[in-house]
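Worked example

This section walks through a single chain of length 166. The input is the sequence exactly as stored; nothing has been trimmed or padded.
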Amino acid sequence: MASVKKILLGLGIGGGLFAGGVYLWRLNKTSVNLDIVPTVKLHKLDLQGLMLRVDVTLKNPTRTSLKVKFPFIKLSIKGTSIGSSQAVNQDVALPAFDEAKFEAIMIRIPMLSLLSTAKGLLQAVQQSQPFTIGVTTMTTIDLGLKKVPYDKTDEVQLIGAQNGSN
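Given that input, the structure is written out below as tokens.
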């Protein structure tokens, strides 16, 4: 009788460990499947610099609901950082097979940066030419038992540079 209890206890513990391992594996796979789609629009050009509006959509194509931190955005040209968003400590629910949209994240690029580092961007805006900007989106995925940092860099066409402003 005592050996049957030990066997059942061992099976219960082994089954629990197996189920926990499968759950953690699925959560890790979920973080790999998260998709980020950024857009960058010209908002305003004035004497203080250039204001860009960044909209980001986080897509969850899996059957696991997640919590993510509000995304932090960093803009770059040919690997050189030209500006970033404010850091926001806010958790956002990302349901299974759904998406979360973060709109109107404003990033100012000071005139001094435009005249030195981002000179090509300023010329493209002034001449209504297309321009590509690197957008790095960083967030943290809360998987319950662990938090996984996640970042993705995309090359995005600046919207609004073709017609001067939006």
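What to look for: The beta strands are 35-46, 49-60, 66-69, 72-77, 80-84, 91-94, 98-110, 132-142, 147-159.
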